[in-house]
Write a structure and sequence with these properties.
By secondary structure, this protein is mainly α. The protein has 4 helices and 2 strands; from the N terminus they run H-E-H-H-H-E. It has a two-stranded parallel ribbon.
Length: 110
């Protein structure tokens, strides 16, 4: 979390620096959570229990799945486009809803 805080503070500092100098540069950041990239492979493995390990890792994520690299790329393209022309100094959490709260649900049998 400390590294994400550093990225957020740097993002805001660069955004303000550029805005104060009337530079046509926007600075935003993306803070992804569990994105299914090769770095997860050693933990997930290739055996028959891979799906169970994946489910356990994202069990507390409201969307209950890993994010995909294409989802991060799509957000980066949006931020680089004119559609985000008024956005600077923002950090966008791409976390399947983790910052929104827990995925814990009441037991329907309970």
């Amino acid at each position: 979390m400390a590294s994400k805080a550093a990225v957020l503070n740097h993002t805001r500092s660069v955004a303000l620096y550029c805005a104060e100098r009337d530079l046509n540069i926007r600075c935003n950041s993306i803070s992804p959570a569990a994105i299914l990239t090769p770095m997860w492979e050693p933990m997930l493995g290739t055996g028959p229990d891979r799906a169970a390990r994946m489910a356990a890792i994202v069990a507390d994520t409201p969307l209950r799945r890993f994010g995909q690299p294409e989802e991060v790329a799509a957000l980066a393209v949006l931020l680089a486009s004119d559609a985000a022309g008024y956005m600077t100094g923002a950090d966008l959490a791409l976390d399947g809803g983790l910052l929104a709260g827990t995925a814990a649900r009441p037991d329907p049998a309970g």
